[in-house]
Amino acid sequence: MATYDEVKDVPNHPEKYLFDVRNETELKETGVLPASINIPLAELEKALNLPDNDFAKTYGREKPAIDAVLIFSCKAGGRAARAANLASTLGFTNAKAYAGSWTEWEAKQSKN
Hints:
single chain, alpha/beta, 6 helices, globular
């Protein structure tokens, strides 16, 4: 599981990937996590199976290596857990969910 502090520090670690698997309409309602790449859960398997060049063109970042740290977030953690499981099934060895997801992020950000 990824923690709030780890997610907050992702912008300082370009070797890590933060994927927000919420739908675009949800992002418009709430905002986005810094340095995150939005890939809705329904599109995740297709995205992670894209050829390297297609992934880079579509998402503006190199496709993660099979051993890269992948952190998945959603609104409350359920879809993030499913996304991490899916990535693991596809062979990614360092996939994890941010259990608190947007709900925790928003609560902790409003205290700062």
